[in-house]
Amino acid sequence: MTLTGNLFIAGQRRSSDERFQALDPSTDKAIPEPGFAIAEPADVDAACEAAEAAYAIYSNLPLEKRARFLEAMADEIDSLGDTLTERACAETGLPEARLTGERGRTVGQLRLFAQVVRDGAWQGVRIDNADPDRTPPKPDLRLRKVPLGPVAVFGASNFPLAFSIAGGDTASALAAGCPVVAKGHPAHPGTSELVAGAIMRAAEKTGVPTGMFSLLNGTSHELGTALVSDPRIQAVGFTGSRKGGEALMKVAAARKQPIPVYAEMSAINPVILLPSALESRGDALAQAYVGSVTMGAGQFCTNPGLVLAMQGEALENFAEAVGDAIHKAAPQVMLTHGIRQQFGAGKAELSAETNVTLLGEGVAPSNECQSSAAIFRTSAAEFMKNPSLGEENFGASSIIVECDDLDQLQSLLAGLEGQLTAALHMDEADYGMAGKLLPVLEKKAGRVIANGWPTGVEVSHSMVHGGPYPATSDPKSTSVGTLAIERFLRPVCYQDLPPELLPACLAGQGPDGAIRLIDGVWKI
What we know:
Elements: E1 7-9, E2 12-14, E3 19-20, E4 23-24, E5 29-30, E6 36-37, H1 41-58, H2 63-79, H3 81-92, H4 96-119, E7 126-128, E8 141-147, E9 151-154, H5 168-176, E10 180-183, H6 189-206, E11 213-216, H7 221-229, E12 235-239, H8 242-254, E13 261-264, E14 270-273, H9 275-294, E15 306-310, H10 313-326, E16 332-333, H11 337-352, E17 357-361, E18 370-371, E19 374-379, H12 380-385, E20 397-403, H13 406-414, E21 419-425, H14 431-444, E22 445-450, E23 489-495, E24 516-518, E25 521-523
Parallel strand pairs: 7-24, 9-10, 9-12, 10-11, 12-13, 14-15, 14-21, 15-20, 19-20, 21-22
Antiparallel strand pairs: 1-2, 1-11, 3-6, 4-5, 7-8, 8-23, 16-18, 17-19, 24-25
Helix pairs in contact: 2-4, 2-6, 3-4, 3-6, 4-5, 9-10, 13-14
C-alpha cells in the first residue's frame, strides 16, 4: 500500500505546501519518501466543521450500525498485516513481535467496544414513572447518557497503534457516538496514515458519515493548541508527557466553554517487596524486576520506576541479584531522538545526586542511537527529602529505596504523587502488613496489583488505567477498558415527554438484556 503523506479530512485526502519527514530512530535519518503534509489552520477548521456536521448523524445511528462500523475498523486494520507492522517497526524501532501483539490489542479493543455498544447498558437508562396521585404530583423522569460531541485525540509516541489513531481513546469516543479529530504523532506518520485509511474504508463499507473521523499531522505544538481551542471540540483524549498534558489542560480551561481533558501523563508506579516474599524469592523477583524495567526500553507508562523494601539481608541479596541482571541487559533503540536525549539527561541527573548510588547499568550502547538501562539505590530518608527522585524518567530507569521499617514505608507512600499502579509482592505471612498498606495505595493509584509487575495492561471490563493527578488529569476515569466510554458521555433527563418523542432506549425499545434502573429497582 503506497503512502501519500496526505491528511485525511472527512474521507478526503488533503495535501499542503509544507511537509516533514519520518525518521528512523535506529539511525536518526529520514525514511526515504515524499514527506508528510503539515496541517494548516484551514485544515483544523475543515476537520472540526466536518466532525460537527457528522455528530448529528453519527450520534443517532442505530447501535447495531455503530457496532458494525467498529468491527469493520478492526477488520480493515487487521488486513493491513505485515504492511502495517513493517512500517511501524521502521518508524519506532520497536520489534516486530511487540507490534504484532499491539495490532492484536488494537483490533481486540475495537471489537470489545462493538459488544459494549450493542449491549446498550452504557446509556445508563433510569426511569422514574409518574405518580399523579402524590402530593405534590410526581413527574415522569427518564435519564440516558448522550455523546458529548466531537473529540480531539492525540496519538501517543510509545504505542503507535493501541494508543494512537485507532487506539483506546478513539475506540471509546466512537463507541460513545462522538466523531474524532485525531492529531497523529510526528514520530510515526506513515503508521498513522495506514490506520486512517483503514478507518475510512470501514466507514465507506458500513455507510457511516465520513466526517466522523479526520487525521491531522504536524510537528508543532501550535497544531494541538488550535485543535483543542476550536469551539466545536467537546473533549480531549491525550497520552504523553506531563508537560504536554498540562499545556493542553490550560488551553481547554481557558476556552469560553471549558472542556474536559482526559490526559494520561506521568507515573513511577511503586512496587513494594514485603519481607517474607523478599526472603523466599528474592532472586526471582530481581530477574522479573529487571525484565519489567527493560521491557520495550522502559517506554511504558506503567514502568516500575520505584521499588520499596525494608532493610535487611534479604534486600541486600535482592540488590546484588538486580545488579548482576542489569549488567547483562542489552542496549536498545528508543522511540525518538528527543526521548533518548531526555532519558540520558535524567540518568545523568540521578547519577549526580548526593546519596544516590548507581546500582548497575546495562551493556554500553554500540552507537549513539541506543541507550542502556540503569537502576539506582537510595534511602527512604533521602528519597523523601528530595522531590526530584520521585519524578518519572521515561525509559529503562528505576530506583530501589531502602526503608527502615513499616512506618517509614507508609510515610513515603503517603507522600507520593498520584500513580497509575501500585504493586505488592507478598507471601501469606505478609498479609497483615499488606492490609495496613492497602488504604494508602487505594488513595494513590488506579490499579493495585498483587504479586505482579505493572507493565502489561489487560483490555477488559474491570481494568482501570488511570489514577490521581499527575498520573491522569481526571482520577474518576480510565483510558483502557470498557469503562473508558464514560468519559465521552453526559446524562440528560427527559421530564414528562410524550412517548412519541422519547429516545428508543427510554420508551421501552432499548436493547434486550440491557440493565435499567426503574423506580429505584435494577431490572433487565
